[in-house]
Specification:
Blueprint: E1 9-13, H1 30-44, E2 48-52, H2 70-73, H3 76-86, E3 90-93, H4 99-107, E4 113-116, H5 130-137, E5 142-145, E6 170-172, H6 174-187, E7 194-198, H7 207-216, E8 219-222, H8 227-233, E9 237-238, H9 248-260, E10 264-266, E11 270-274, E12 283-287, E13 290-291, E14 296-300, H10 302-313, E15 317-321, H11 334-348, E16 352-355, H12 358-366, E17 375-376, H13 381-387, H14 393-399
Parallel strand pairs: 1-2, 1-5, 2-4, 3-4, 5-6, 7-8, 7-15, 8-10, 9-13, 15-16, 16-17
Antiparallel strand pairs: 11-12, 11-14
The chain binds adenosine monophosphate.
Adenosine monophosphate (AMP) binds next to β14.
Amino acid sequence: MNIKVTNKRVLIRVDFNVPLDKNNKITDDTRIQRALPTIKYLLKSGAAVVIMSHLGRPQKKLNEDGSINVKKFTLEHLRGHLSKKLRKKVQFCPETVGKVANKMAKALKPGEILLVENTRFNKGETKGDEALAKEMSKLGQIYINDAFGTAHRAHSSTATVAKYFGARSKSFGFLMSAEIENANKVINDPERPVTAIVGGAKVSDKILLLDRLIEFADNIIVGGGMAYTFIKAKGGRTGNSLVEEDKLKLALRLLKKAEKRKVNIYLPKDSTIADQFSAKAKREVKDSNKINKGWMGLDIGPDAQKAFSKVILESKTLLWNGPMGVFEMKPYAKGTKAIAKAVAKATKKGAFSLVGGGDSVAAVNQMGLADEVSYVSTGGGAMLEFLEGKTLPGIAAMQK
Ligand code: AMP
């Protein structure tokens, strides 16, 4: 961050979209934690800091009378926690923009913090509304974007607002810079072999990613529910496993493209199968292409774990997105655990490993391995789109 922030009022867009429980207590504060270095730096440098973020999707869950459910979605829920983490008082403004917000922002002294209300309480936010962005820009003399998690959205607070600040009055925060730098390590001239591990529920969510991975990875490991669409496409019997019938042809096309480019695609040879989608189901280990009707593959099996781990341990660059099974249920978490361990071990041996996307991040955190991989991304959709080669509006807007 090479702009002067001392004695300046700095507007920072962060991604504080954290999960809350029924009592509005934060259940995972990773996103707040990851934005703290930038906020602390600004405070230490003598800036007055105005923080804005979204939380949830308030416009999609309006009250019956069409009004915003403030009680549920207010950013005030985060104020106490943020204050504790910064060991400083955090002022709160019940509007994002407007007279009160402007007055409170202008009254801030260096080292003071103001949190303004949920950006998505404003209808124009998700449309990238110009008037709203202009109002937002009045809150600061400098704009910092540290919200990688929403960088793939062209919203007022993430993209449009940047145009009201000149090149020397705007900057990425430390988190945003780190996300970009680490994703680039995978895409640009990575050390080989490069292995991508892709899992999760559906092929349809990750078509573009797979397509792009085939262009730069040496190995692609496919696990999770999406593996069964590939296995069925190759003529396997997948029983009641999660298969996207309308993606069978596409799966074959991807396999062919990989073959042509000499990219190895690894599918799970065996699976832990169950007779119902439940932790209490009857379970067996079976060849993934010999699953009978009434049974479904819910995790990769022991042979697949071994084979995948071997490939991972021989890699120099690793990218992981998506769990290997229904890891939320203990009997089907073994595959994801084995992969997490292998990625950690490969990292220890000198590989660069990037874990991106909501569920694989949750898995790595759950297993206490977050510190044993090279980088854990805070962006699910944003990281996917970056790796797919798309230009993210939140990044592009800062470079104009
Ligand atoms: P995604 O958001 O696409 O990364 O998918 C994550 C979800 O995929 C998790 O909730 C997993 O429970 C689910 N998942 C992983 N493997 C399977 C499987 N074999 N069958 C059904 N769902 C799965």
